[in-house]
Amino acid sequence: MCDGFIPYRALETGHGILHNRGVSNEEAQLPMIHKAKDLSPQQKLALESLLGRAISEQEAISIRTLEAPPEMSPERRREILDSLEAHFLRVDAQRMPVSGAEADGIIDEALRSTRPGYRPVR
User: Fold this and answer.
1) pTM greater than 0.85 (yes/no)
2) What pLDDT does 30 receive?
3) CA end-to-end span of the chain, whole Å?
4) Fewer CB atoms inside 10 Å of the end CB: C or N, the chain?
5) 25 falls in which pLDDT band (50, 70, 90)?
């Protein structure tokens, strides 16, 4: 096991690069966590470039790959959009009429309840 790598599951490693031989696709998708202080200067520079900021020596960096979603046909995309539009028309038909200002207030209140530091931009 290489220094600076904290595995969620022990995987075969070599020269600081994770090799997933004999590991299922699901297991290969597990995040890798590296301690910033154990990164090479080149690795640290690459990560700082991706993050757009400097990395502190006390930080841990988690890396995870994600598979691209399967391609969707234009017909299937249209079906989904039509279904969503029908759903929102049903929801809109049941709501009480309110002014634009009242609607904005309701939305702002909902955003503040989930994002305490939220400030509306007008």
Assistant:
1) no
2) 65
3) 53
4) C
5) low
